[in-house]
Amino acid sequence: MNFTGKCALVTGASRGIGRAIAVEFAKRGADVALIGRDVGALEETAGYCAGARPGAVAHVFAADVTEQSSVDRVVAETVARLGRIDYAVANAGQSADALLLRLRPETLDHMLNVNLKSAFYLCGAVAKPMMKQRSGSIVLVTSIVGIMGNAGQAAYAASKAGLIGLCKSLAKELGSRNIRVNAVAPGLIETAMTEKMPDAAREFLIKQAALGRAGTPEDVSGAVAFLCSDAAGYITGQTLVVDGGVLM
Predict the structure, then answer these.
(1) Residue 204's pLDDT band (boundaries 50, 70, 90)?
(2) E strands present in the chain
(3) Residues annotated catalytic, as ranges
């Protein structure tokens, strides 16, 4: 999986899974565009990218991915600086738990905006340069919760399930232009977001995993790199579950 001469764009690249994905691309030779709101954290990610490979190029773009105009701007600036976009990863996401009867409308709107609409905006923006290139790979980061559901996470699960539908539809729309669209569905991954989970819930999920452990961001980044690589050149419209064997 050699990405030398390629350009990868990653949203939510300031920490966790997004940071690991960006570093993975940089390590394998790609120039990387890092998208997020926390400029300081993005600069840290850029530093990790530089440390992963001598000469690695990582550009930091501050943007709110829930605003279509901001996403369009960042994609245009990325193309202007790097000349192309070969890989785009819609990783930005947040979780807010609430039972349906206690779910506030603003919480639902926030989940849909951050987890689902932002991916629509990104895909729409990167599809244009990829269509001109007649090549590209898009990966959407969903969740096993979007496949199996989970009590108290209806809004989160619905937003993540929407990404799977988006993946399949865009794979059919863009396939004739040699653009592949896939998704990864992580299980319990050790990130700042999952640190907030109650211990009992964490232990339950780990017991459900055949491998008997939580995953790491690098477990996910390797899967994303594979889906973008030529090794996955005949794979599109698929959701790769990365959960240590919870869903089988």
Answers:
(1) confident
(2) 7-11, 31-36, 58-62, 87-90, 136-141, 179-186, 239-242
(3) 156
